[in-house]
Design brief:
Layout lengths: L1 H16 L1 H22 L3 H23 L5 H6 L1 H7 L4 H30 L7 H25 L6 H28 L5 H30 L1
């Protein structure tokens, strides 16, 4: 676990040195969501109705924007080969990098989501469910994204390939994330959708490091 914590700390320090990358993800999230009212009109009830879908779709796109750099820098400078040869299992290394990615990308999106909800005139009763759903769903986006980033590593135009690999796998997270907020706003219980989001996170937590580690070993051969 010491190596796991050190790797997470290393990636966080690197991210802090490149604050512009994390800032661009949040800026993309906010600006993209802010463009929708120009397309659908300023009608308050309509904006409140589409707010959950807009927030989740823009969050997914923002996460995709940052996935290419998840393993690429380590692959190019040889650090990834050292990780593969280190005593730390490669699966735990993948998990550590996915955690660091979520802390620098997913967590800021969770914090920014309520501001967008207020911008869209969403009912305040849905804010706790929005935050909880984003907190459960965005780690899954990072874990699933790690699989796509590992599979596209070393490929030509990997930045284009990653969304094609990752988007279909993220559809369930998107469905249950939006469904939880819609259920809360309609006065129904959001528990079922939140439980599904939690189940998806647990499945991704177990399977994503294994799949991404296998893809990384293939890329290093």
């Amino acid at each position: 676990m010491n190596g796991f914590v050190q790797l997470v700390g290393r990636d966080l320090r690197l991210a802090l040195r490149q604050r512009a990358d994390a800032g661009m993800v949040v800026l993309f999230f906010v600006l993209t969501a802010a463009l929708f009212p120009f397309g659908v009109g300023p009608e308050a009830n309509l904006l409140a109705r589409i707010a959950p879908g807009v927030i989740w779709v823009t969050a997914l796109l923002a996460v995709l924007l940052s996935l290419e750099r998840l393993f690429l820098a380590d692959y190019e400078d040889g650090a990834l080969e050292l990780l593969a040869l280190s005593p730390l299992p490669l699966e735990l290394a993948v998990l550590a990098k996915a955690l660091a990615h979520w802390l620098t990308t997913g967590l800021p999106l969770v914090l920014a989501a309520p501001l967008l909800a207020l911008l869209y005139n969403m009912d305040l009763a849905g804010l706790p469910v929005l935050i909880l759903a984003m907190a459960l769903g965005t780690p899954s986006l990072s874990l699933i994204g790690a699989i796509g980033a590992a599979l596209a590593l070393g490929a030509r135009r990997g930045g284009v390939l990653i969304p094609l690999l990752v988007l279909p796998l993220n559809v369930p997270v998107l469905i249950f994330g939006v469904g939880a907020i819609d259920a809360a706003l309609a006065g129904f219980g959001a528990q079922a959708n939140l439980l599904f989001l939690g189940a998806l996170f647990l499945v991704a937590l177990v399977t994503a490091p294994l799949a991404a580690a296998a893809a990384l070993r293939q890329a290093l051969e």
